[in-house]
Structure prediction request, 165 residues.
Amino acid sequence: MPWIRVLLRYAAYALWVLPLSIRRIATRLRVPRRMLGETVLPHRFSVARSLSHSVLSGAVGLLAWFLAFLAVVAALRGIGYPLVADENLEGSWGGPTLAGAWAVHAGLGVGLLPVWLLILAGIGTFQVRLVRGLLGRNGPRWPALVALVLATGGMLLFLAWLRQA
Prediction:
């Protein structure tokens, strides 16, 4: 299925953008072409464009890494639910038996991996739009605003995750 390979490439690009955000502009323009077949025609060099792309793509790249981390944690906790389960399974999904709770948590943890993959591939697609908008010659300007919203939302999600009980 070739569409799975495409999704995997875009998801990998979403994760690759974080270290790429501090590289030279020529490298940032070359990687989408080599990884995804997406050509970005360079705009005239500007320090403001370069710095804004570095900050915004790095922030969205951090969000992608955090979401990948959450996906791995959810899958591992689902598979290893008996190791992390509380003794009281009455209120647990799939409870009151350990087998039922384990089946539900493992099913959700592993079953949601394709959804996480779609989210990461969407972020990778968005990152291509961002590089076209800020460093490309003919890209739209809206990705910069959306990147700011995504970075803010990612920061709030991270803070909420840190403060959970």
About this structure: Residues 47-79 form the longest helix (33 residues). The chain has seven helices and no strands. The mean pLDDT is 87.
